[in-house]
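I'll show a typical protein example:
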Amino acid sequence: LLLGDVDVEATSTEQGEGSSLLQDNASTKASQALGVNTEALGKALTERTVKARNETFKVPLTQQQARDARDALAKEIYVRTFDYIVSKINTATSSGDVDRAMRVVGLLDIFGFESFAVNRFEQLCINYTNEKLQQKFTLDLFKTVQQEYDEEGVPWTHVAFPDNAAVLTLIEGRMGIIDVLNEECVRPRGSDEGFVSKLTTLHGTESTRYIPHKMNKDQFTIKHYAGDVTYTAHHWLERNTDALPEDLAGVARSSSFTMLSQLFSSSVVTTKKKGKLVKDTVCTKFKAQLTLLMEEIERTTVQYVRCVKPNSIKSSSHYDVEMVVDQLRCAGVIEAIRVARAGYPNKLPHAEVPRRFGLLCDTSGSTLQLCKALIGEEPATQKRDGPYAVGSTRVYFKAGVLEALERRRADALGERAIVVQARWRQIRHTRRYKSAKQGAKKVQARHRRYIARRLYLKTKAASILAQSARRALMARKRVAALRRNRAASRVAATWRGRKERRAYELLRTNAVTIQKVQRRRAAASLFTKMASDAREQAKLENRLAAMEAKLRDAQSKNEEEEGALVANALVDLRSANADLRKENEKLRSENAALKKKVSDLEQEKAIRADVLAASRAQHFAEPPKPVAKKTVSSPRAADTTPDKKKQSRFAALVGSLGFGNTPTTEKEVPPTPSSGRRDRRAPHIARPLNRFWQDVPAGSLESALPSTPNDVARVHLKVGGQYLCATGARGCALEPVPQQPKSPSSSTADGRDACYLRCEPPVQVSAQV
């Protein structure tokens, strides 16, 4: 709605006629509602981006083209929002069980047939839909009735009915109106007059449903089932294309309004035609949706409801006969009535005829004999006509026959109803007499009951007085006995409570002991798992050392191609390392599953043994014995000591590659000059991320990287428990060392090495553990 208030003004540019967005309150409100910048919206509305090969340039739009682009954006927002709401409603109301068969009742409300003074593209689409539905109605009503007569063997006279298959062929057939319109839209210089001219050439003489206009070149007439309609092909190509410019789509996708950007995030549906990708036109989309609708209707049982408007002034007392007749003719109701009156409008199954009309005559014979007795005439045959016809499963009646039988049936039922009413009145009066007689007897009985009750109440009062005295004596005795029983119960309850508390304390002590033993065994199992992981890591390091030896052999053979060999070796090492990691993960998962199974069995066995021991101790009244704690040594201490063998193997690898003298320890850092800048040629081992990492700059490999005097390059080798990586850093070797805050898990070497490009993001030692 706000986009409709936005307007543009015509301007002149170097390239010709152009336009610009009016900077007023309407454009500001529209931009705020869309969540975009006003300037960006104005450029997208007044300019179009054109791509030609490798070039992209802006083409200004005229005032009318800019307004068309504005309308296209508003339509696209409405369409996508409508589809979004429909999908949400379907999702909310649909059944969660997709396999469950569901019964659906659908209501299809459509436009009626439209014929105005000026009929445009929209009227063609609406009338095309009515033609499809009218064809379905014709097949369901006319052809279905005739097919039923043939199946039942009923004689009938053929009744001609209008068939609109020719109109549908003209609209949706090969080289029909839809195909010609789409072809004209794709043609570079297509026009509305060219579209009408091509239709006239194709269908002017061949089709009886198409009538070309002699005076106006942009008009043509189609003979629909409801009448002739003259269409004016004005701006049909633009309305059929209705393409949203990519610039406006990009502005909508960049909107700060989340819902709008999500609606335009999907790509445009395209169709491949003649080797090119073209956007689907409005006709193509409309035809596809109508085809899906007809397929859905074919799968259902259709019931038709024809709505007739009595007048155009919305009055309850006025009835416009001509208007109603036109509506009935357009809806095909008059043709349906004519066909129904010409054949057999009423029918009944064979079993229904004796059930409804058996009271009029004897029903012992066949259905044919019953119909002859009821109607008094012979049925219709192929040679002569008759008031009724007997089919294989149904009896068909002509107009007025079934109504006469129903009147006779109503008269017979009325006579029998009079007899039933007389019998009912007799029963009612008999019941009334019996009721009065029974009432008199009840009055006499109640009087006699009153006299007897007075005597009974006197006797009852004396008896109650004697019984109350006796019950009071017995109650006092029962209260004394209950008081003695309550005192004895309290003493017994106190004694039982003391005994149960002692037993509970003993069970609680045993349970605490069992829990301690279980926790100790869980800690031992965890220690065993961590030790196994450490051994697997050591195996991977040994494999990595073997790969380093292969790398030294390859580098010693060809020193001239040192950089290329290192790169190839790194690729192979990465691949091998990935395979080893997968194998390691697989072994770990299998090992963990076996360990868990063994641990569960051991725990179950231990718990059973502890429970048995505790039960025996409780049975023999022995105090629980304290569980001896085992001292478990942690492998962390061994891991904290540096691996001398690994350090020496790494130092040999660095020395064989010609990287200079390597430090002997992990934490040794190169000297930093007093100027605060690094020496890019100095060998250096950065502090590893954890105890499995080593980081060495390879100074002698700098020649493998392109560099300039102002762009310093440095190559690094990284050796870890699972990776061997060669990384580099450019442009930061001569920069001042940034001052970073120290943390418990980082050192000065990590700060100097912050500009290196590592294989994986640096993490804290505690996080790695």
In short: The first strand starts at residue 8 and ends at 13. The mean pLDDT is 76. Residues 401-557 form the longest helix (157 residues).
